[in-house]
Design brief:
The protein is of the alpha+beta class. It is 69% helix and 13% strand.
Length: 91
Protein backbone atom coordinates (compact mmCIF):
# COMPACT_ATOMS: atom_id res chain seq x y z
CA UNK A 1 0.00 0.00 0.00
CA UNK A 2 2.76 2.49 0.78
CA UNK A 3 4.34 2.03 -2.65
CA UNK A 4 1.00 2.76 -4.33
CA UNK A 5 0.57 5.92 -2.28
CA UNK A 6 4.04 7.21 -3.25
CA UNK A 7 3.37 6.54 -6.94
CA UNK A 8 0.06 8.42 -6.71
CA UNK A 9 1.74 11.40 -5.04
CA UNK A 10 4.56 11.48 -7.59
CA UNK A 11 2.11 11.22 -10.49
CA UNK A 12 0.02 14.03 -9.03
CA UNK A 13 3.11 16.20 -8.60
CA UNK A 14 4.19 15.53 -12.18
CA UNK A 15 0.71 16.34 -13.47
CA UNK A 16 0.59 19.58 -11.51
CA UNK A 17 4.01 20.48 -12.88
CA UNK A 18 2.59 20.23 -16.38
CA UNK A 19 -0.78 21.85 -15.66
CA UNK A 20 0.33 24.90 -13.68
CA UNK A 21 2.14 26.60 -16.59
CA UNK A 22 -0.94 26.10 -18.75
CA UNK A 23 -3.18 27.55 -16.04
CA UNK A 24 -0.84 30.50 -15.62
CA UNK A 25 -0.85 31.15 -19.37
CA UNK A 26 -4.64 31.08 -19.41
CA UNK A 27 -4.78 33.47 -16.46
CA UNK A 28 -2.54 35.85 -18.40
CA UNK A 29 -4.77 35.64 -21.47
CA UNK A 30 -8.03 36.18 -19.66
CA UNK A 31 -10.60 38.87 -20.22
CA UNK A 32 -9.88 41.79 -22.51
CA UNK A 33 -6.53 40.50 -23.77
CA UNK A 34 -7.97 37.16 -24.89
CA UNK A 35 -10.91 38.90 -26.60
CA UNK A 36 -8.54 41.26 -28.41
CA UNK A 37 -6.27 38.45 -29.59
CA UNK A 38 -9.21 36.40 -30.86
CA UNK A 39 -10.65 39.44 -32.64
CA UNK A 40 -7.27 40.09 -34.30
CA UNK A 41 -7.02 36.45 -35.40
CA UNK A 42 -10.53 36.65 -36.84
CA UNK A 43 -9.80 39.91 -38.69
CA UNK A 44 -6.71 38.29 -40.20
CA UNK A 45 -8.84 35.31 -41.31
CA UNK A 46 -6.82 32.86 -39.20
CA UNK A 47 -9.81 31.74 -37.13
CA UNK A 48 -13.55 31.61 -37.73
CA UNK A 49 -15.95 32.79 -35.03
CA UNK A 50 -19.28 30.99 -34.72
CA UNK A 51 -21.96 32.25 -32.33
CA UNK A 52 -24.65 29.75 -31.29
CA UNK A 53 -28.15 30.93 -30.40
CA UNK A 54 -28.33 29.30 -26.99
CA UNK A 55 -28.68 30.25 -23.35
CA UNK A 56 -26.09 31.16 -22.36
CA UNK A 57 -24.74 32.27 -25.72
CA UNK A 58 -21.93 29.99 -26.85
CA UNK A 59 -19.08 31.22 -29.06
CA UNK A 60 -16.74 28.81 -30.81
CA UNK A 61 -13.50 29.60 -32.62
CA UNK A 62 -12.04 27.27 -35.22
CA UNK A 63 -8.92 27.39 -37.33
CA UNK A 64 -9.49 28.37 -40.96
CA UNK A 65 -7.76 26.78 -43.93
CA UNK A 66 -5.74 29.98 -44.20
CA UNK A 67 -4.77 29.66 -40.53
CA UNK A 68 -3.72 26.07 -41.15
CA UNK A 69 -1.32 27.34 -43.80
CA UNK A 70 0.87 28.49 -40.88
CA UNK A 71 1.40 24.91 -39.65
CA UNK A 72 4.85 24.49 -41.24
CA UNK A 73 5.99 27.88 -39.98
CA UNK A 74 4.86 27.10 -36.44
CA UNK A 75 6.52 23.66 -36.46
CA UNK A 76 9.79 25.20 -37.66
CA UNK A 77 9.60 28.05 -35.15
CA UNK A 78 8.98 25.57 -32.32
CA UNK A 79 11.94 23.43 -33.44
CA UNK A 80 14.15 26.53 -33.50
CA UNK A 81 12.93 27.52 -30.03
CA UNK A 82 13.70 24.08 -28.58
CA UNK A 83 17.18 24.13 -30.15
CA UNK A 84 17.78 27.68 -28.93
CA UNK A 85 16.74 26.79 -25.39
CA UNK A 86 19.13 23.81 -25.35
CA UNK A 87 21.94 26.08 -26.59
CA UNK A 88 21.27 28.73 -23.94
CA UNK A 89 20.85 26.19 -21.13
CA UNK A 90 24.35 24.73 -21.88
CA UNK A 91 25.97 28.05 -20.92
Amino acid sequence: MIAEKNVTQRDHKQCMGMLLPVRDALDFLSGKLLSKELRDLEQNQLVKRTVYDSVPVRVEYSLTDYGSSLDKVIVELRAWGVQHRRRIMKK
